[in-house]
Amino acid sequence: MLSSLPPREREIVDVLYERGASTVTEIGEALSDELSGSAIRAMLKRLEAKGFVAREASDRGFVYAPSVSDKTARKSALSQVVRVFFNGSATSAAAALLGMQDEMTGAELDELEKMIAKARDGRMQ
Description:
The chain contains 6 helices and 2 strands, in the order αααββααα. It has helices at 7-19, 24-30, 37-50, 70-85, 90-98, 106-121, and strands at residues 53-58, 61-66.
């Protein structure tokens, strides 16, 4: 879903996921290169119309935040990576992650084991 956005709009949404609710000025400070406030506002308006961003009035002016939960966005992004790079195979993607075990802590590997056990039991959400 986020992958369908033009690069600039995607960068703005990424900033909002990283920083949380932000003003136009704060978004502009976080972007990779300078954009005018009016250009940022125009993109935010498009993102709001597309359902990716929500706007709320505050004492700082309007603040913008992602309207799609980070969990939903991560799942969507990961689904696309699995489709594109692993031919739709979640098993191949998991195997690639496990191939990075040298970069994982024991606690992270333990957590993966627990998640696999829950998935087997059909309780994973």
